[in-house]
Give the backbone structure.
Amino acid sequence: MKQRRVRPRLLMVSLLFLLPAFLFYAVFVLWPIIQTMWYSLYDWNGIDVATWVGLGNYVQIFTDSNLYGSILHSFFLIIFFSIMPIIVGLIVAVLIKDIKLKSVSSFVQVCLFLPRVIPGAAAGVAWTWMLADHGAINQILRSLGLGQFTHVWLGEQSVALGAVGIIGFWLQLGFCIVLLLSGIGGIDASLYEAASLDGAGWWRQLFAITLPGLRGQIGVCLTLTIVSALASFDIVYMSTQGGPGTSTMVPGVQVYRLAFTQQSVGLASALAVTLMVLVLLVVGPLQSLVNKKED
Amino acid sequence: MQQSRTTRYIGYGVLFLTIAFTILPFLSMLSAALQPQGSTPEGIDFSGQLHWENFIAAWNVANITPLLRSSVILVIGVVPAVIIFSALAGYAFASLRIPFASVFYLLFLVGLTIPFETLVTPLYYEISAMGILNTRLALILPMIGLNMPFAVMWMRSSFEQMPRDLIEAAEIDGAGHFRTFMHVELPLALPALSSLGILTFLATWNQFLLAVVLINDPDKRTMAGALQAFVGQYQTDVVLLNAGALLIMAPTLVLFIFLQRYFIRAMLAGSVKG
Amino acid sequence: MTISRISKVAISALSALAFIGSVAACAPGGTASSSNVKSEAASKDLGSEKITLTLWNGAGLKSFDEDLIKAFEAKYPNITVKGTWDPDNVSAQNGPRVISSADSPDVAAITDITSAVRGKHVISLEEYAKLYGWDIPESQTVYYRASSDGKVGAGDLYAVPDAVSMTGMYWNTKVAAQLGITEAPKSVEELEADMKLAKDAGITPMIMPAKEGGTSFIYQALWTNNSGKDVINNWILQKSGSSIDENGAVKAAEKIQEWAKAGYFSSDAVALDGTTALGRFNKGEGLFFPSGSWFSSSINEGLGADAGFFAYPGNTTDQAGSAASNAVTPYGIPANSKHKNAAAAFIDFTLSDEAQQLAVKHGYPAIMEGAWKSDNPVLNQILEAESGLVKANNTTNYINNATAAMQASGIIPNFQTLIDGSQAPAQFVQAIQKQWDSEVK
């Protein structure tokens, strides 16, 4: 990092700019997180007086296969929630950018953004029917003569987690595209002109200008989608509730179950804290992508 | 920019498939919403008689009118605050010098990583201690806080994309930080601000769990909660649930289509200036 | 400083903060609940002062409750009842907090009797029971009696059921007639023979919504046949030493798996939810549909005269049938209730003939004895089956309610793996017992 003398007044002004956001955040997010850490050391039903259990809840998480298994599932979902939407999103964003017709482009954008408009719970419901035995997906497969590939998508342990992943892909794709598009809009058009004059083709421009220019957006996309994979809740809750068996159970649903159904707020908090630490370890290093100043 | 014809055709093909994939669930919902009430449709089917009156029935059954008002109040309380606070903080992160910036930034990141469901219990006790349980503030204040990590991250990254030379030029002109922010950076950030506005609106509009826990009066909860009227203990009214879901999405959709034109215009303007 | 180093610092700083918090403060909970409630002596006399009584229940019961309230207000003109109904899929989760909060409702559905009594969030109804002379069948109140430390099954009465919810088998008599079946099966053997007939004719023998744990109703009947109702009820009442890991329960699980393998259940049972299952049955797509009294109006509307209902049969024709049954709403009085006498009057009113007839009108079997009749023929068959089972005294509570998370974390996932064949019957009962052990203290 460059060493530069910074005037104290600038530091003060900076803090003032930060203050309102941080204040709300500290009171309504950070403090509850600290509370959650505190709860995680107790056996507590959320209402009556709690019993101190120390690290007992954490021991249970790492010895109960149902609990640590759900964490593994959520890591698997990263493929669908994060990697696939970003790759497909990049391709589509670059394509839309080149569409010169403004009306087509805005129609495309509205369509792609639709999944984000719908409440997560409704998305879960819609996809549950689509993936059902008599649902649209199997309807389409049969009409294409691919009847042998039909499944009860959410009812077979071998395909259920992947099917849930597809819902996540659907949900994240439009968001990634919109974010990447706004980044492409910010790339200096003269860079492309210069490259064209130098005889750089479409692919060279993609790798030499577009991708580096989108570093920040890709970083944000990765961070947010990985977080949404690891902390996924509504899609799984509405589509499978973690079943069949525990084959699609994820920590988000498990935490909700433990806290609200089983009234084991302590154990739920411990699982949440474990998950939080894991997510931080994964997305923390990604921040160097987002943070340009680290160069 | 040159682009071979094959690439372009492949491009349109991919685009078409993506859009079909995106729209399919909505067609499925619309198909279900137009079936006779009380039936349990499976698959997509527009062949029978279409029952558009289901939308009116869904509106009445779910008692949407007061919920619409509550949601609007909530959005008015939350979205502007989130946009203003996060723009200030994002600017501070990107263009000013916050002491221990990395630590602050990481603290914001922590908020994204915790499953939201765990925060509900501590929030309940906190709101209760503040004495605002069952009031509109019980939902507005935490929603501002909960939107903050994403919003700050979003604004920071968009301020960082801005051309440095413009800002430096403004600074050389002797413009203060606040003036640079207001007159140079903020106008450039309009596309990012409008998309943030939409995303924050959605997160607020679709919030449900927090409303159930913090507000006892069902009429003071959110539009997203209206869907619950169709989900019984044993039985779900599939047709009305779909009609209701489409109704709930409608205002968001209108807002998005409206803002989206502005969004593109702002984006084009930004790139021309850059 | 690199980001990863900063994250380490930040994480350890946060944990340190949490640790300080935990040492400095006392245990969480137990402070928010007590409000200043003036004690009132139990009395039938409600005076003439205007009272607003608040009520809390699940949204599915709103129309029944509203009729109850209207009739109650007509009887007690100085009392106004203001109801709040939470969505059904969150009411169980919200219930414990609602009744323990300082501004709790005056009369409320008690969703978890154990924690409510243990935390002293509800009052004992014994005095009111004597005062009003409540005479409710013991088989229906036993689940709402508890000792002062929350052990359910004996002790003071803490909630009063207003009507009954009961499991049983619906069947499509038209489909049956096509298969040459003229009578409801009187034993499990006959049931199996009928299912084989249907299977051979290409009709789904049993519509099975295993996505929501719908298999448990018929399973519970098989288990009751094998082991007797006391074994099941002791397990549900959390008596120490009871276990589902026993021979009769394994045998019942073997039967379910056998049926699944024979193709007697819907082919997509594991992903089939209750509503879709009901829709298919109402379209005439199956022969049997194991479910409960809550679907009587929907099935009457869907199938009309073709619909039939019978109690789950015994293993042999001379063994009595059985059912799981409990309250539609167990009403109790939160400790913070400001109008306990008025709340008790409301509970008393739910047991009156007028209120019981309202229950039947809304499709819920009455809890008090009487010659109840409905204009819904399916419900009449249910009422008939109910009175037979009450006479035979062969009902149990729902195994789904054995612990707070039994349905979500025990019943649903393990029936799914039992049906798809990935879990053997012996492991099935062990997995369910493991959930029981983790929650019963």
Remarks:
- Residues 250 and 256 of chain B are 10 Å apart (CA to CA).
- The domain at 54-273 of chain B is CATH 1.10.3720.10 (MetI-like fold).
- Chain B has one domain: 54-273.
